[in-house]
């Protein structure tokens, strides 16, 4: 008997497939336990001050895979359950705690009222007495750690001098103790502190009215030099020595040199702290040939051309009396107008011979004192069409200077020729350019004194 097995096997296989579906394990959804939080803050409204650390805490007591966060004004600030926060500015803040997982969210809001405070420190620290050097500027600052809208006030010896946080405009001119008081205030309160500024004297420093190492002057003149103690002058003792011999103990050295020659001048000073200053000069005194210095009687006369400039040569008070020229009177050559000029004036040799009996042909050189002020002029003597520069150029040292001019070897002045002084030239011998006659430089004013002829 033949059996048909194929349908039977097929049915069995189909039954098996159906059975396997009935026994397969399907994934089940994860079941989270919702967060449970114990809120440990004592109140939902918290009062704090700027700069104080405020503690925040909450305790998660149940829940699976819970994430936590503290938000200050909606900004995540900490992921811990507990933390401390310092509020830097006054104001009202909302602080929220959140605990969350897949099963839910638990949160609570807190209101923090932060009030302002005032906390200030001075840049001198805890010191109430600091030392500074004379002539320095006092530099001191109020550093505001906490506090808004602070008003500052600095006073020195009772006088209010500054209303800024940084005080750096007061110069400590004297070697003494200054009392500095600071006060800072805002709506929260005020802070005050006193600091003594002990100013120590600067080292000894002397300024001299004549700084030339070599001083050239004429016999029959008085040399004056002033020593001024700029700093460190407490208990100052001064001595001047002329050719090694004491010649004075005052601040001003004054000596009349009757004869020509070379002299040595020395200054020595010591103060109460034992600091010393010394200075040496060599004084070259030239014997005179024929000197014209009594201008009040002599020079303003027919032997000077007065009107070659406007206003030209005038008799005036000495504007810089001292040093190698202590005369009360001198000559001034001034030029009005803003064009280029040499500022010249003329000494008329023929008139000098006829009016004063002075024969210039005995001499081959001429020298005079000049005060240029701030002007950078190079005076020349114009004779016979040649502009002679001085043997030694001007020093421009702000003092009276001695300028000396010589004719070529073997020649002398001629009584029939005038001698022209061109006082306002450039170094090359050209006229100075135009400009503002009232300017500090190039102001077209030169002072002359002690015109002397020599052999």
Write the layout of secondary structure elements.
Layout (H helix, E strand, L loop, with lengths): L5 H17 L13 E4 L5 E5 L3 E10 L4 E6 L2 E4 L3 E5 L4 E11 L2 E12 L3 E4 L6 E5 L3 E10 L4 E6 L2 E4 L3 E6 L5 E10 L2 E12 L4 E4 L5 E5 L2 E11 L5 E6 L2 E4 L3 E6 L3 E10 L5 E11 L3 E3 L11 E2 L5 E7 L11 E7 L8 E4 L1 H8 L8 E7 L8 E4 L2 E4 L11 E6 L12 E4 L22 E10 L1
Parallel strand pairs: 2-8, 10-16, 18-24
Antiparallel strand pairs: 1-3, 3-6, 4-5, 4-7, 7-8, 9-11, 11-14, 12-13, 12-15, 15-16, 17-19, 19-22, 20-21, 20-23, 23-24, 25-35, 26-29, 27-28, 28-35, 29-34, 30-33, 30-35, 31-32, 31-34
Low-confidence stretches: 1-9, 11-23
CATH topology of the largest domain: Jelly Rolls
Number of domains: 4
What is the name of the CATH architecture of the largest domain? Sandwich
* Alpha carbon gyration radius: 48 Å
Secondary structure tally, helices: 2
Mean pLDDT: 88
Give a description of the structure:
The protein is mainly β and 455 residues long. The chain has helices spanning 6-22, 349-356, and strands at 36-39, 45-49, 53-62, 67-72, 75-78, 82-86, 91-101, 104-115, 119-122, 129-133, 137-146, 151-156, 159-162, 166-171, 177-186, 189-200, 205-208, 214-218, 221-231, 237-242, 245-248, 252-257, 261-270, 276-286, 290-292, 304-305, 311-317, 329-335, 344-347, 365-371, 380-383, 386-389, 401-406, 419-422, 445-454. It folds into four domains: 36-115, Immunoglobulin-like, CATH 2.60.40; 119-200, Immunoglobulin-like; 205-286, Immunoglobulins (Immunoglobulin-like), CATH 2.60.40; 290-454, Jelly Rolls (Sandwich), CATH 2.60.120.260. Helix content is 5%, strand content 50%. The strands form eight sheets. Strands 25, 27, 28, 30, 33 and 35 form a six-stranded antiparallel beta sheet that branches. Strands 2-8-7-4-5 form a five-stranded mixed beta sheet, with no helix packed on it. Strands 10-16-15-12-13 form a five-stranded mixed beta sheet, with no helix packed on it. The longest helix has 17 residues, at 6-22. It is elongated, with a radius of gyration of 48 Å. 24% of the residues are buried.
């Amino acid at each position: 008997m033949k059996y048909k097995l194929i349908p039977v096997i097929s049915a069995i296989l189909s039954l098996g497939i159906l059975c396997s579906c009935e026994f397969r394990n399907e994934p089940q959804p994860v079941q989270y336990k919702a967060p449970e939080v114990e809120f440990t803050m004592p109140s939902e409204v918290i009062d704090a001050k700027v700069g104080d650390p405020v503690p925040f805490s909450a305790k998660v007591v149940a829940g699976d895979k819970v994430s936590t966060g503290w938000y200050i004004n909606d900004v995540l600030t900490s992921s811990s359950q507990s933390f401390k926060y310092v509020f830097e500015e006054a104001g009202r803040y909302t602080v929220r705690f959140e605990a969350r997982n897949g099963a839910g969210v638990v949160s609570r809001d807190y209101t923090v009222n932060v009030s302002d405070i005032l906390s200030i420190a001075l840049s001198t620290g805890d010191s109430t007495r600091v030392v500074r050097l004379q002539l320095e500027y006092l530099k001191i600052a109020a550093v505001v750690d906490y506090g808004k809208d602070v008003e500052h006030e600095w006073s020195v010896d009772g006088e209010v001098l500054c209303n800024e946080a940084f005080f750096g405009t007061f110069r400590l001119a004297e070697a003494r103790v200054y009392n500095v008081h600071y006060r800072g205030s805002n709506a929260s309160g005020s802070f005050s502190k006193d600091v003594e500024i002990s100013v120590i004297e600067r080292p000894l420093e002397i300024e001299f009215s004549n700084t030339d190492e070599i001083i050239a002057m004429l016999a029959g003149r008085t040399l004056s030099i002033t020593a001024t103690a700029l700093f460190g002058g407490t208990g100052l003792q001064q001595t001047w020595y002329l050719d090694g011999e004491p010649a004075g103990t005052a601040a001003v050295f004054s000596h009349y040199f009757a004869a020509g020659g070379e002299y040595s001048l020395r200054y020595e000073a010591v103060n109460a702290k034992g600091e010393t200053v010394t200075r040496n000069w060599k004084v070259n005194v030239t014997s005179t040939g024929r000197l014209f210095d009594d201008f009040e009687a002599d020079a303003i006369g027919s032997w000077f051309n007065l009107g070659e400039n406007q206003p030209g040569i005038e008799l005036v008070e000495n504007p810089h009396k001292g040093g190698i020229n202590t005369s009360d009177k001198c000559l001034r050559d001034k030029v009005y107008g803003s064009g280029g000029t040499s500022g010249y004036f003329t000494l008329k040799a023929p008139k000098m011979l006829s009016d004063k009996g002075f024969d210039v042909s005995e001499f081959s050189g001429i020298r005079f004192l000049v005060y240029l002020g701030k002007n950078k002029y190079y005076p020349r003597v114009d004779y016979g069409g040649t502009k002679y520069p001085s043997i030694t150029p001007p020093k421009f040292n702000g003092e009276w200077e001695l300028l000396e001019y010589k004719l070529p070897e073997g020649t002398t002045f001629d009584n029939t020729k005038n001698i022209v002084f061109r006082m306002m030239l450039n170094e090359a011998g050209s006229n100075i350019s135009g400009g503002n006659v009232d300017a500090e430089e190039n102001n077209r004013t030169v002072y002359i004194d002690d015109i002397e002829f020599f052999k």
